[in-house]
């Protein structure tokens, strides 16, 4: 009996490799959404100025017109 390995049989066998080490995952954090954006000081300052202008023009329309 011939003991040399058959190349066709070797190709059919799956390759056995060591399992890959687990990937390091970043710590779980909550995604930043709309409320995070609204908590930024420059945006809140801008929205306050716009609201103040709207309030002034609304009061002007009610009082003087």
TrEMBL record:
It comes from the Bacteria. The chain crosses the membrane at residues 43-64. Keywords: Membrane, Transmembrane, Transmembrane helix. Residues 19-29 have a biased composition (Pro residues). Residues 1-30 are annotated as: Disordered. This is Uncharacterized protein.
């Amino acid at each position: 009996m011939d003991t040399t390995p058959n190349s066709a049989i070797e190709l059919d066998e799956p390759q056995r490799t060591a399992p890959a080490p687990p990937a390091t995952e970043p710590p779980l954090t909550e995604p930043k959404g709309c409320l995070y954006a609204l908590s930024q000081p420059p945006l809140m300052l801008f929205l306050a100025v716009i609201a103040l202008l709207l309030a002034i023009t609304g009061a002007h329309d009610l009082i003087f017109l």
